[in-house]
Design a protein that fits this description.
GO terms for molecular function: methyltransferase activity; oxidoreductase activity. InterPro entries: Amino_oxidase (IPR002937), FAD/NAD-bd_sf (IPR036188), Flavin_monoamine_oxidase (IPR050281), Homeodomain-like_sf (IPR009057), SWIRM (IPR007526), WH-like_DNA-bd_sf (IPR036388). Keywords: Chromatin regulator, Methyltransferase, Oxidoreductase, Transferase. The chain is built from 25 helices and 34 strands. The chain has about 900 residues and is of the alpha+beta class. Among the domains are: about 90 residues, Winged helix-like DNA-binding domain superfamily/Winged helix DNA-binding domain (Arc Repressor Mutant, subunit A), CATH 1.10.10.10; about 230 residues, 3-Layer(bba) Sandwich (FAD/NAD(P)-binding domain), CATH 3.50.50.60; about 190 residues, Polyamine Oxidase, Chain A, domain 2 (Alpha-Beta Complex); about 100 residues, no CATH class. The radius of gyration is 28 Å and the shape is globular.
C-alpha cells in the first residue's frame, strides 16, 4: 500500500461505495485497458489473492469510464468460457457530489459532511440514517487505496458499500446506515487489504491505531474483532498463525465429526479460540472427498500425485484455499483455455460446428432462464433437462448426428458441473449459487490438494477409523457414539457429507427438526467418478490441460467425456478421465479392467491416427464415490423441488446451540466447492464460539420467544400475506379488534433491485437527484434477494404516514426524519414486537389466508399445504421486479421464513454465472 500524500487522488475523497454494476451489453464500445499496477494472471499463478488481476480499467478517453472483470459461467465448468460475463465498476474523477446535479464537482476536500451523505442516503442501499454520530460528521480517509481495498473486500465476500447479514447480526455498528457505517466499511476493507498484503503475518489491531482517527477506534475494535472471530483474516497454516494456538485450552470440549476441509478448518479455528478439540474421522486418512493418492511404478519408478476427489480451485480471487497455498509457498497452475474436442473416430471436431453447437447450447440455457421467470412457481417442479430438451425439439433446426453428439457433450459437461442428471436439476434454482462465485482463474495446486489437507491436519487431534453411529444432543451438551466409545462434549460439529445424512446412517437423538429433514431430502447429491492413469511418458503433449471426447449414446455421454492432464503439476505423466451424469452411476458397477480398456480405446482412437503410440498405463485407479460409505456421492446440487434456502436450513444449529453443521452442502453461496467446505468450517467455529461465550456469561443467545427464529419469522411472513393496510411499498399489520390510535402496529417496507423507473408520485428532481455516491456496487452474492425492513409504530402514526404525498421516497423521509424511527431487520424488532405478533396471530384466529383460498378456488386443492407454501415461496425468488421497491406482499417468503435482511436499500441486478464444484 502506498502511504497517503498531500494531494488526494481520485479515490481518496470517497469511501469504497461509489460503484454501480453495469450490464456490459448496455455500454457502447467500451475500450478496456489493463490497470498498470495489477498483474495479469499468468500460468503459474504465484499470488492468488491480491487485487483481482483480471480487473480492467477503461480508457479515460472513452465515454464510459469503468473498471471491469470477467467471470466464466458455470455452464463452462469443464471447458473455458468463450464469451465471459463482466462486472463493470465506474471509474470516477476527483471531486465531491454537487447536491444539485448528477455530476462530480472538483474539490480538494478530503472528507464529506453528513449533510452530503444524507442527500444521497435515500437512494443508497444503506438504511436511512437516524442520528449523526456523536464523534464526527465526516468520512475518514485512511489512505489513497479505498477503491482497491473495496475490490479486495468484494473478493472476500463483502459488499463494497453495505454490511452483510452476519455483520448486522453481530452488531458491528450501533446504527445501520450513515457515516458511522461508511467509516466501519472503510476500516473493515483496510484491514482485509492489510492481511492480503502479507498472509504470513498475524495482523494485530495495534497496526492500525496510528492510521485510524481516534474517534473511530471503537469501529476499529468492532471491525477487527469481527474479521478475526469469523475467520476472514489471520487464518491458515502460516507459522505466525499457528503460534496463536494456546498450549493449554481453557474452554469447553468440542467434538468435530469428519476430518474433511470443513472439519479441519473448524478444528484449527476452535483450537485457536482456546477450545479443547477432538476430531472423529471414519476413514484412515484426513481430507474426506479431497483425496490425493500417490501413484507409482515401472522400471524407472515413475510417480505422480493423482487427485481422486476435489481437484480444481474454482476461482482464485479471495479463495481461502489459495491463501493457504500461498502460505505453503506454492504456486498455482492456471487451467489453460485450450480444450479440443474429438469425434468418435478420433478426428478433431470441426471448429465452425463446435462454435455453432456451443452457441446454440448457450442460447437454450438463456431461453430456459427466461422461461423460469415466465413460469413462476410452476418452474419449481420442472427440471432443467425437460426445458432444454423441449427447446431443442421446438427449435426444429435440422442437426446431423455429429452435431447431436456435440450437443450431448455439452449436456455431460453441465452434469459434471452440477454432479447431477439434468433431468433431476431444478429449472428454477440449478444455478442459484452462480452470483456468489469467487471469480478468477481455475487452478491446480502442484503436488495435489493433499498438501493443503496435510498442512491443515498438522497437530490437530484426529482419531481415525471412528465411525459415528449416534449423536445425542440436549441442553446440557452432546454425546457422540462411535462403536463402543462415547465422546461427551459441550458442543459438536457434524461435517459429514449430505449423502451420509440422506442415508440415515447416523442416528440423532432427539430426531432432527422436520424442516432440516425435509431440506436434507430435497437437496440433490450427485456423482462424479474418475479413472486415473499413470503412463511411462507423456504421449499427449504438455501444451494443454484438458481435452474432450464425444459419444454417440446419450445414456453414455458422460463416460470419459473429459480428460485432465496433470503432467505439469502431478510430478509425472498422469492423465485422468472423468465420468459424469448417468454414466457415473453405471460406472460404479463397471469392472475396472473394462473401464481402463474403454479409456485406452478412446485415447488410441485420438492419437494413433496422428502417428503417436499409446502405451499401456503403469498404474490405474478407478473411483467409486457413490459406494464409499463415508460420502455416498460426490457433491450437492439443487434438485427439482429444492432451492438455495435448503442449504441455509442444513446449516442451522439444533439443540439450543449444542449441535452444529458444516460442509459444502451447508453453504448457499459456495456449495459443491472445496473453498465452500472450508469457509463453512470457519463460519461454524464463529457460531460455536458465540454460543459458548454467551453461555459462559449466562447470556441467552438472541432468538425468538418460540426458541425457533425461523418459526417466528414464518409466522410474521404468514401475517404479511394479508396485511391490514398497504400503500406503495409499505404494508402494515395490527390487531383488528383494537381501533385505539395508540395501539401498536408493525410496518414492513419492501425493497428490491436498483430503481429503473420513477416511483409513485415522484417528481423529476427526485428521479434524477444526485444519487451516484451511494449507488451500490452490489456484490455478486446478494443481488437476487429482496430486502424487508420493519419498525413498530402506533396505528395513528401509520395512518399519518399513509397520507404523506410524494411517493415512497417522501414517506421514508417522513418515517425517519419526522417520526424518528429506525428501520431494522426481523431480529431487531425485539420482544415487544414479538408480543404484538403473537397478539395479532391470536386475534386473527384460524382464518385461512386469501392466497390459500384462491388456490383452492383455482383447482389447486390437491396440493398439500407445505407444497403450496413452497410454490408461493419459489415464485417470489423467480419473478423479478425492475423497480427499486417491490410491491408483492408475499415476496418476502423463502420456504416459509422471512428474509431477515437489514443489509441495504435497493438491491442491484447483475446476472453473472460462474462455476464451482467440490469434485473435479
Amino acid at each position: 500500500m502506498n502511504p497517503p500524500d498531500d494531494i488526494a487522488d481520485q479515490f481518496s475523497l470517497f469511501p469504497p461505495i461509489p460503484f454501480t454494476l453495469y450490464d456490459p451489453h448496455e455500454i457502447p464500445n467500451p475500450e478496456p485497458i489493463s490497470v498498470p499496477e495489477l498483474n495479469p494472471n499468468p500460468s503459474p499463478i504465484t499470488d492468488p489473492t491480491p487485487v483481482p488481476s483480471s480487473i480492467q480499467i477503461s480508457n479515460p478517453s472513452s465515454s464510459h469510464n469503468i473498471l471491469s472483470f470477467s467471470i466464466p459461467k458455470k455452464r463452462r465448468r469443464g471447458r473455458p468460457q468463450r464469451g465471459s460475463t463482466s462486472f463493470n465498476i465506474p471509474h470516477f474523477p476527483i471531486g465531491t457530489l454537487n447536491p444539485n446535479s448528477n455530476e462530480f464537482s472538483s474539490s480538494s476536500s478530503t472528507s464529506i459532511s453528513v449533510n452530503s451523505i444524507r442527500n444521497s442516503v435515500g437512494s443508497s442501499n444503506s438504511l436511512p440514517h437516524i442520528a449523526a454520530p456523536d464523534t464526527s460528521d465526516e468520512i475518514i480517509v485512511i489512505n489513497r487505496e479505498s477503491t482497491a481495498e473495496a475490490v479486495l473486500a468484494l473478493t472476500a465476500g463483502f459488499p463494497a458499500d453495505s454490511l452483510t447479514d452476519e455483520e448486522i447480526d453481530a452488531g458491528v455498528v450501533p446504527v445501520i446506515g450513515g457515516i458511522e457505517q461508511v467509516n466501519y466499511i472503510l476500516i473493515r476493507n483496510h484491514i482485509i487489504a492489510k492481511w492480503r498484503e502479507n498472509v504470513f503475518n498475524w495482523i494485530a489491531k495495534e497496526m492500525f491505531i496510528d492510521s485510524i482517527p481516534k474517534h473511530c477506534h471503537t469501529l476499529l475494535d468492532s471491525a477487527y474483532n469481527y474479521l478475526v472471530s469469523h475467520g476472514f483474516i489471520n487464518f491458515g497454516v502460516a507459522p505466525a498463525v499457528k503460534e496463536k494456538i494456546p498450549a493449554e485450552p481453557d474452554k469447553p470440549n468440542v467434538v468435530i465429526i469428519g476430518a474433511g476441509l470443513a472439519g479441519l478448518a473448524a478444528a484449527r479455528q476452535m483450537m485457536r479460540f482456546g477450545f479443547k478439540v477432538t476430531v472423529l474421522e471414519g476413514r484412515k486418512r484426513a481430507g474426506g472427498r479431497v483425496y490425493t493418492k500417490k501413484m507409482e511404478g515401472g522400471g524407472n519408478r515413475v510417480s505422480a500425485a493423482a487427485e481422486l476427489g476435489g481437484s480444481v480451485l474454482t476461482g482464485t480471487l479471495g479463495n481461502p484455499l489459495g491463501i493457504v497455498a500461498r502460505q505453503l509457498g506454492s504456486t498455482l497452475h492456471k487451467v489453460r483455455d485450450k480444450c479440443p474436442l474429438y469425434c468418435l473416430d478420433g478426428k478433431p471436431v470441426d471448429a465452425d460446428m463446435d462454435m455453432k453447437v456451443e452457441t446454440a447450447f448457450n442460447r437454450l440455457l438463456d431461453k430456459a432462464s427466461r422461461l423460469r421467470q415466465l413460469m413462476g412457481d410452476v418452474s419449481v417442479d420442472v427440471s432443467l433437462g425437460a426445458a432444454l430438451e423441449t427447446f431443442w425439439q421446438v427449435d426444429g433446426e435440422e442437426v446431423n448426428a455429429e452435431e447431436m453428439n456435440l450437443f450431448n457433450w455439452h449436456l455431460a459437461n453441465l452434469e459434471y458441473a452440477n454432479a447431477g442428471l439434468i433431468s433431476k436439476l431444478s429449472l428454477a434454482f440449478w444455478d442459484q449459487d452462480d452470483p456468489y462465485d469467487m471469480g478468477g482463474d481455475h487452478c491446480f495446486l502442484p503436488g495435489g490438494n493433499g498438501r493443503l489437507v496435510q498442512a491443515l491436519a498438522e497437530n490437530v487431534p484426529i482419531l481415525y477409523e471412528k465411525t459415528v453411529q449416534t449423536i445425542r444432543y440436549g441442553n446440557d451438551g452432546v454425546q457422540v457414539i462411535a462403536g463402543n466409545q462415547v465422546f461427551e462434549c459441550d458442543m459438536a460439529l457434524c461435517t459429514v457429507p449430505l449423502g451420509v445424512l440422506k442415508s440415515g446412517s447416523i442416528k440423532f437423538i432427539p430426531e432432527l427438526p422436520q424442516r432440516k429433514l425435509d431440506g436434507i431430502k430435497r437437496l440433490g447429491f450427485g456423482l462424479l467418478n474418475k479413472v486415473a492413469m499413470l503412463f511411462p511418458h507423456v504421449f499427449w503433449g504438455t501444451d494443454l490441460d484438458t481435452f474432450g471426447h464425444l459419444s454417440d449414446d446419450p445414456s453414455r455421454r458422460g463416460e470419459f467425456f473429459l480428460f485432465y492432464s496433470y503432467a505439469t503439476v502431478a510430478g509425472g505423466p498422469l492423465l485422468i478421465a472423468l465420468v459424469a451424469g448417468e454414466a457415473a452411476h453405471n460406472f460404479e458397477s463397471m469392472p475396472p479392467t473394462d473401464a481402463v480398456t474403454r479409456v485406452l480405446q478412446i485415447l488410441k482412437g485420438i492419437y494413433e491416427p496422428q502417428g503417436i503410440n499409446v502405451p499401456e498405463p503403469i498404474q490405474t485407479v478407478c473411483t467409486r464415490w457413490g459406494s464409499d460409505p463415508f460420502s455416498l456421492g460426490s457433491y450437492s446440487n439443487v434438485a427439482v423441488g429444492a432451492s438455495g434456502d435448503d442449504y441455509d436450513i442444513l446449516a442451522e444449529s439444533v439443540g439450543d446451540g449444542r449441535l452444529f453443521f458444516a460442509g459444502e452442502a451447508t453453504t448457499r453461496r459456495y456449495p459443491a466447492t472445496m473453498h465452500g467446505a472450508f469457509l463453512s468450517g470457519l463460519r461454524e467455529a464463529a457460531n460455536m464460539a458465540r454460543y459458548a461465550n454467551a453461555r459462559s456469561l449466562r447470556i441467552k443467545v438472541d432468538r425468538s420467544p418460540s426458541k425457533n427464529a425461523h418459526s417466528c419469522a414464518s409466522l410474521l411472513a404468514d401475517l404479511f400475506r394479508e396485511p391490514d393496510l398497504e400503500f406503495g411499498s409499505f404494508s402494515v399489520i395490527f390487531g383488528r379488534k383494537n381501533a385505539d390510535p395508540k395501539s401498536a402496529a408493525i410496518l414492513r417496507v419492501t425493497f428490491n433491485e436498483q430503481r429503473k423507473k420513477s416511483q409513485e408520485g415522484s417528481t423529476p428532481d427526485q428521479q434524477h437527484s444526485n444519487k451516484l455516491l451511494f449507488q451500490q456496487l452490489q456484490s455478486h452474492f446478494n443481488q437476487r434477494q429482496q430486502l424487508h425492513v420493519y419498525t413498530l409504530l402506533s396505528r395513528q402514526q401509520v395512518l399519518e404516514l399513509r397520507e404523506v404525498r410524494g411517493g415512497d421516497e417522501m414517506r421514508l423521509n417522513y418515517l425517519c426524519e419526522k417520526l424518528g424511527v429506525k428501520l431494522v431487520g426481523r431480529k431487531g424488532l425485539g420482544s415487544t414486537a414479538d408480543s404484538v405478533i403473537a397478539a395479532i396471530k391470536a386475534q386473527r384466529g384460524n382464518r385461512k389466508p386469501a392466497s390459500t383460498l384462491l388456490a383452492l378456488k383455482t383447482g389447486s386443492s390437491k396440493l398439500k399445504g407445505g407444497t403450496l407454501k413452497r410454490k408461493l415461496v419459489r415464485r417470489a425468488k423467480i419473478v423479478r421486479n425492475g423497480n427499486g421497491l417491490a410491491p408483492p406482499p408475499s415476496s418476502n417468503l423463502v420456504n416459509g421464513k422471512v428474509l431477515e435482511e437489514t443489509r441495504t436499500i435497493h438491491q442491484a441486478s447483475s446476472d453473472t454465472l460462474v462455476p464451482g464444484q467440490n469434485q473435479g
